[in-house]
Amino acid sequence: MTPTGSVLTHLECTACGAAQDADKLHRLCPSCDKVLYPRYDLDAASRSLTRDALAAREPSMWRYREVLPVRSMEHVVSLGEGFTPLLPCERLGAALGLRGLLVKDEGQNPTGSFKARGMAAAVSRAKELGVRAVAAPSAGNAGGALAAYAARAGLEAAVLMPVDSPQVNQVETWLCGADTWLVDGLIDDAGRLVRAHAERHDWFDLSTLKEPYRVEGKKTLGYELAEQLGWELPDVVIYPTGGGTGLVGMWKAFDEMEALGWIGSRRPRMVVAQAEGCAPIVRAFDAGAEHAEHWAGATTAASGLRVPAAVGDYLILDAVRRSGGVALAVSEGEMRAATAELARAEGIHPAPEGAATLAALRRMRELGLVEPAERVVLFNTGAGQKYPDFVPVTLPSVAPDADHLPAL
Question: What CATH code is assigned to 86-112+216-386?
């Protein structure tokens, strides 16, 4: 086996601090049922993982392999995920009165969303630990990513997703060979079914933050953000938040990079963007609560934001508060308007979840929460092409010999 150079040492509970053996299969902390984080010997990592060394490495998330959990190269399951572009948005920024607006376009990942990062890490580590079948509930994109990476790894896969998940995701998941069921309910209902049937079918459950490794793929967002900005973090990060793995993963990455000596102690203000029809983190933030109560009757066309309860709610809220950030909910209409605005101004067709970040930024400007000179990064977490019905369009038709084109 060819070593990756990973300096993974153990797993640590984010609540009670209990340590667990990283070379055994774990899900949540066996002591308190909270989220487990992988931990690394960062002093050892710094001997080979340097800012200068990165210049010669492949443009994928595996360039940070010392601080990823897979120990051997043979177990790395990759489709080229990561190192997505960080795009300056000058016209849109000017319209908003901002001089430093950027979009991190995760829609350019394999499978068309940021879910590729988490599933690449989780499936790779599951394969390394001897797992043969993986499963997860999904609002859409995670199912497609799980199916693709399981196929790449030669593992069996099962996905349960709400019946109204985007059709593109349903086809993608089935086409990549995953056993796929549609659930007449929400993602938490799908999650209960995965847990109920996991033992019978010998599935290892890769639900968001209920195993330790999806967050490690997502944390590479933070490493890339720093690297692409010359090791200076932005002032504001606006992130569409369902399960919240990307946001807490970046927060973890910032701490690791500081320990490596790559950045200082300054952090961006972390901003949660949710939909008005499903905003448990916003409600908890406004109430000053540590945990977010289950959101009853969740409704939004942004399927990735339709997450009534997040197991890592306390981690999300802690990052937002410690950074001086805020949590905001936006309407369906605001998301649709932002979809067209970003596409027309910058040629970036965002997923509805990505559009929510622009809608949240507009709200922040109205409230005076962002200054013109500040550098702001919006995360577009998926390709808008996977949501063809989100913005209804009716176009005029013309005869091939028409003398005049009808007005639009």
Answer: 3.40.50.1100
